[in-house]
Write a structure and sequence with these properties.
Blueprint: H1 8-21, H2 28-32, H3 39-45, E1 79-82, H4 84-87, E2 92-97, H5 107-119, E3 130-134, H6 138-149, E4 153-159, H7 164-173, E5 176-180, H8 187-200, E6 204-206, H9 213-232, E7 240-247, H10 255-263, E8 268-274, H11 279-282, E9 309-313, H12 315-326, H13 328-336, H14 342-347, H15 353-368, E10 375-381, H16 389-399, H17 404-415, E11 423-425, H18 428-436, H19 438-443, H20 450-458, H21 461-467, H22 470-484, H23 486-489
Parallel strand pairs: 2-10, 3-4, 3-6, 4-5, 7-8, 7-10, 8-9
Antiparallel strand pairs: 1-2, 9-11
Amino acid sequence: MIDLTIDEQALARNVEKARENGVIIPTFRQMADPTTIPEKITEKLKTVGLWDVNPLNLFRITWKNEPKQDGGLFGGPNFIELPKALTGVDARIICMVGKWFPTGCHKVGASFGCLVPRLVTGQFDTTFHKAVWPSTGNFCRGGAFNSRLLAADSIAILPQGMSRERFDWLSKIAGEVIATPGSESNVKEIFDKTWELRHTRDDVMIFNQFEEMGNYLWHFNVTGPAISAAFESLKGDNLNLAGVCFTSGSAGTLASGDFLRETHPALRIAVGEALQCPTIVNNGFGAHRIEGIGDKHVPWIQNLKNTDMAIAVDDNDCMALLRLFNEPAGKAYLSSEGGLTADQVEALALMGISGIANMLCAIKFAKYYELTDRDVVATVLTDSVDMYRSRIEELREATGEYSPTDAAVDDAAHLKGARTDNMLELTYVERKRVHNLKYYTWVEQQGRTVDELNAQWYDPSTWTGVQGQVGDIDQLIDQFNAATGVLATL
């Protein structure tokens, strides 16, 4: 359960600082359904850019933003349906689009879910604490952005091997940026740095996305309903939501599967990882290039009893498709030989590297279960190619200009050639095996107890209890906003 104990003195300081900085905090209800946002706020948003450092952009932490960079309001959920000409499967694959969040990534929502419950209880004191955001990329970006909007100081931690775009942007938003050794698979090094900060500084509060149930809560209550709405908007007879496929960064997005299973009990939930670091599939380890997903551990907030399949994706496939989807020769090939319309080709830029991995997971899932055109598989495009243009430049420098022949080979080998290898259906025994891997990170290294670990497996209220806290947190947010009085002055 998320601790909602009130610290009255710190809460009073937070209210005062929010008042001074014009902060109004959205509820989870408003993020799931922006039609409930007060009209005074939507009117103000018409002059606010999507990435502007403006507290009003907290209300754009939703899947339902109008897809524009400046002055957009709200509509239906942002998603695309991938054409069969691209995927090669009959199943309908829908992808929730993360680009239209502030910061260009849905991790701004996960970080909101971690920080705000502590802020509106006074456990996090904006006049004293610095919010520490350990991440393999986008979570610390979202955390630093939310911290600025909520008038809090921040420290971003991410591996030094992450893309240049992330570091350039963070240098302007975060109070401090710490680069740890390694790349996206070096999660332990990130944990080691947070452990050091926890024991050497009293002014920091760690928001570990892999451990924070606020991450789980946000995806259950916001991403889950958004996927449901996207599915319900599809046209077709007797459609079946067959599965959801998400690579495991922090595993927060998998909570949306828990939500969807309540109304689609036959739904299968699949978790993806890099073949070069097959922690779940093979208790493996290694380094890989699918930026934004974390490895060599199992996140504390992953509900393994609700995880049906593990899928390993080759990072070579992801990097090849990054070029196919974005190089001029690749886009021309997909139009002339691949059967895609110009709009469908341009939409592929909505996929970052992990988004491509998610797409491949969905394709492999559809092939494995022999899904038909009545079956729908959902996934997310965490961010877009905008975070990885430097990677395309690096690939071009390493291997030369991209040719039509390269495009044909990549389409055949890395996309249409997707196979059902390196996939593992998780039986009860397999799920328990993967669950037990949490012990080595969270009990041995991070101070959790065996009783807490066992409760996640044997006590369903560990998960349902958190899911049910959203009403209490929304009430605390409403009380906080009433105390600041900012909304009344708009």
